[in-house]
Amino acid sequence: MICSRCEKYVRTKTIQLDLRSLNIQGDVHRIDCIDSNHFVAVTLNDEIINVDDAYCDRLDNEWREVQTDRDKVLFYILSQIVYPNFDAPRPEKYESLYTLVDESDVILLRWQGGKAIGFYTVKPIGTEIFSMKERYIMPVVDSVYIRSEYRNRGFGTGILSDVIARFPNEDIGFSKPISSGMLRILKTFLTNRKEYRLRFWEIADCDVNGSQQLIWCNLKRAAL
């Protein structure tokens, strides 16, 4: 197989992926380059799904809820391969690796020019944390990622606008810890949009023992 990164024929190994939590109806395999020890491709029913390709049925620049198997595979590539390997999280900025979503989670992909350039995921109200026998009392933005080459273009603020539109009558939670980058976006947004200052919450431990805290209050305390 020709490796796009090595630009030559290479030896590869193929691993079947267990993506049952994404409810994919098909065979998904990951192909890695043995010679250079890196990722080459992911296939869905023997078709290569390339996160750098532009898809003609996704030309609208928008956030779109993931529904098709192809889009679920693109989410897997972004969250489990591109993010950890090419935009490695920085712990000092409260960034962390993401586990695969639960079956009940809502996944949104950002489409730009036909390409999937980022995602965010939401845990709906009532989602159970099985280890704690508790449930979320508001929709919670659990993970966020925009590819580095598309950052500083307003897509982070777009996430806030999109999640508000999807849950117009609800308070919105954000999983703790909130990254430094997202906190900057939230600070700018809440400075300009006072009506949301009492609606955005930082959520830890599914709000067990009153763990939810108003993000605006936390930002004001940090500024003192």
TrEMBL record:
Q: Which organism is it from?
A: Atta cephalotes (Leafcutter ant)
Protein name, per record = N-acetyltransferase domain-containing protein
Q: What SUPFAM superfamilies does the database record attribute to this sequence?
A: Acyl-CoA N-acyltransferases (Nat)
Annotated GO molecular function terms are: acyltransferase activity, transferring groups other than amino-acyl groups
**What PANTHER family does the record tag this protein with?**
N-ACETYLTRANSFERASE, GNAT FAMILY-RELATED (PTHR22442:SF10), PTHR22442
User: Which Gene3D superfamilies does its entry note?
Assistant: 3.40.630.30
**Start and end residues of each N-acetyltransferase domain:** 87-170
Source domain of life? Eukaryota
